[in-house]
Amino acid sequence: MTGRKDGVTISDVAAAAGVARSSVSRAFTRPDMLSPETVARIKEAAERLGYVPNHTARALSTGRHGNVALIVPDVANPFFPPLIRAAQSEAERFDFCVFLGNTDEDPRQEDKLLGRFAGQVEGVVLVSSRLSDAQIRAHAAMRPLVLVNRDVEGIPRILIDSAPGVSEAVRHLAEIGHRKIVYVSGPPTSWSNKQRRAAVRNSAAKLGIEVETVAAPVPSYEAGKEAVGAILKTGATAAVAFDDLTAQGILAGLIERGIAIPKDFSVVGCDDVLGAATYPSLTTVSNRSVEAGTVALSLLMQMLQTGIAHDVRHMLGTHLVIRNTTTGFVKK
Amino acid sequence: MTGRKDGVTISDVAAAAGVARSSVSRAFTRPDMLSPETVARIKEAAERLGYVPNHTARALSTGRHGNVALIVPDVANPFFPPLIRAAQSEAERFDFCVFLGNTDEDPRQEDKLLGRFAGQVEGVVLVSSRLSDAQIRAHAAMRPLVLVNRDVEGIPRILIDSAPGVSEAVRHLAEIGHRKIVYVSGPPTSWSNKQRRAAVRNSAAKLGIEVETVAAPVPSYEAGKEAVGAILKTGATAAVAFDDLTAQGILAGLIERGIAIPKDFSVVGCDDVLGAATYPSLTTVSNRSVEAGTVALSLLMQMLQTGIAHDVRHMLGTHLVIRNTTTGFVKK
DNA sequence: TATTGACGTGCAACCGGTTGCATGACATGT
DNA sequence: ACATGTCATGCAACCGGTTGCACGTCAATA
Lengths: 332, 332
What we know:
Two copies of one chain form a homodimer.
Chain A: H1 10-17, H2 21-29, H3 36-49, H4 55-62, E1 67-72, H5 80-93, E2 97-102, H6 107-117, E3 123-127, H7 133-142, E4 145-148, E5 157-160, H8 163-175, E6 180-185, H9 191-207, E7 210-215, H10 221-233, E8 238-241, H11 244-256, E9 266-268, E10 284-285, H12 289-306, E11 313-316, E12 320-321
Parallel strand pairs in A: 1-2, 1-3, 3-4, 4-5, 5-11, 6-7, 6-8, 8-9
Antiparallel strand pairs in A: 10-12
Helix pairs in contact in A: 1-2, 1-3, 2-3, 5-12, 8-9, 10-11
The structure holds a DNA duplex.
């Protein structure tokens, strides 16, 4: 097992081709500066020797390493993987690599990762950041930074606007006969949670139906299931949950208590991460995480290329996806 | 918007502390070589100036950049995120960063990524690789490489051994009265699929019960649902699915046809990625993806530190998790 | 024919650390 | 008092590229 280092450097190629090291460099980065024959000779030699440019060395002298960081609260939350994937393939279009960071929903961990990545990446995408506005601003001052689902003025941000979808959901519930509904809230520091709660309240007020809020501090199946007691106690006949996982837990909790869905109770999720895979299939608000990932990354690339950061605030709309946890409700 | 470069280098610190650059370097990498007072003075200066060592520069001279790559077929498949997360936090223990690669189940993409990462990472973890043995060997010859769920002799590999869990499942099904079962298979090139199919057949043969195989070429909810027709046609009374997603689809398909679960039909999944979140909650084979991620990474770290690659073949056992899609079957 | 400019190439400094070796100060042993 | 050894520190080369500038050649222009 000999092979560790390839060992073929620019000097080797230069020697083989009978030119200076700088010419080899230029043959790859600015071939137009050299005569076509020289370029050909160098490339031939490089090919023959199996030369591969060393990213690290290049990065040291140019300051551009072709890497960006993507930091999310929890890779295992089904909301994020499609976003990650989209961001990654967009990065690849620009020949960039992605560092993935997972913060476990912990701001300290987030800060630590940001520091660890610094100097290895040219820019950062922060998804659903739990940092304070001040911390975010501080990082943004050091390097190009794009936010997803976090609204800090002056910093480019992509926001998935669930308000239209949520409003539509409330209207839908009112139409099929509900007079009192519950919003089952998510993480208190989440921008999306605040936005959804506000959207539920506003639409309900407009439609003249009652709303109460029940807390599910963590967005998970278990938390949803546990919230069912509190939900039923309100006397509401429908629930809008912070996300699909919570909704799925609520579904399970209701079924366990013998409550028929959608006949006796309606449930609406958010983010559409489960597709039609619940039973009954879940009515939910559509999700734009793929676009969010793509846009965030292309925005970052643009910032890197131009060197300027516009104060972009990119909103992505949503809509209601009606399935079988709402239609079929029978008003008493 | 001035701040781009921190600009604080080892030279700045050296000047501030009144020592040579090499002493600053040593203050961080080999403090034992310097007098405690000098170290203190340098660290103080570094702190005051906000000095952060430049990874790229360090990498250039040492050849160690503190990065590893983790390549998976599909981040969005719920099997992988926990593994990714575990690997990432293990990497962090060693102060390493993780590059994440997504191949979209495409061997060409996998090869491309591997090339793109080369020179930026010290080692690679390949999860459920779709490359040929020869390609894997070629890459392994160039740099430290660890495989997960792929069995290539001579290359360190972590294998999640679903055989024990699957065998237990078949025994369980036999015990509650099934005489004929179906294995719903996954991707034909998958090592796990081959292993699971074999385990089902072997145990069934031992217990004297009948097995048929139905193909669901892609592991997904939809594919599972579509397979239901074929499953019922076999006359079997239970299905063991390649994974939980497929099982969930089967569940939905059966319920849609009015077949009561578990009374009339039993379903077993694999990988336990859905928790108890299906209805009825799914009996499945446990998953060791977290350990797989952790072990793969620590193995890689060990290889990097010692420089030697033992021919490790690390098996992680599994067991059956009994929930409500099996118990309650009523034999006719 | 002398002048000018364009063009292709090489030289050498630089990016920000690391590290082998040399040096000088001081302490120890005899 | 002198030889020897230890220890802390500095010098300078090096990792593998990039890039501003200088130089020489050759053709076009005056």
